[in-house]
Amino acid sequence: MVVVENTPKVHNMIVCTLCSCYPWPVLGLPPVWYKSAPYRSRSVINPRGVLREFGLELPEDVEVRVWDSTAEVRYLVLPERPPGTENLSEEALAALVTRDAMIGIAKVALPQAGDRA
Q: I need a labelling partner for 84 at 20 to 30 A (CA). Which of 4, 42, 72, 110 fits?
């Protein structure tokens, strides 16, 4: 398993173009869209477009890197730490991380006022 880190200038996205290689022991069952042919092909051809469809708009100066998992190597994204979390404990930070953030189709965000933690 390889972990790739998101930074303010690099955003990573995970796909498996040949099959549905997915680190299910870590992330649970894969979402249906992850195994779909459109996600697998379009993530390589137009990653920014795919991210936009998931609601993630990245600035043009952020490089998008797409990592293709295989039967031998599975990738996970270490999400970028969101602003305003400097005083959170490791446990509180871990609670913010989602499956989608570890695939790279979402960023980690602080819960909005009124959201359930």
A: 4
Within 13 A of 71's CA, how many CA atoms are on the CB side?
2
Q: What is the pLDDT of residues 3-33, one digit of tens each?
A: 999 999 999 999 998 876 888 888 888 899 9
Q: For residue range 30-76, list pLDDT tens digits in order.
A: 899 999 999 999 999 999 999 999 999 999 999 999 999 988 899 99
**Beta bridge partners of residue 63, listed in sequence order:** 10
16 is catalytic: yes
User: Which pTM does this prediction carry?
Assistant: 0.88
| Residue 29, strand partner residues | none
Q: What are phi and psi of 2, to 5 degrees?
A: -120, 135
**All residues at 6 or more sequence positions from 8 whose CB lies less than 8 Å from its CB, including other chains:** 62, 80
- Catalytic residue at 89? no
**How far is the C-alpha of 91 from the C-alpha of 93, rounded, in Å?**
5
CA angle 26, 47, 101 (to 5 degrees): 30
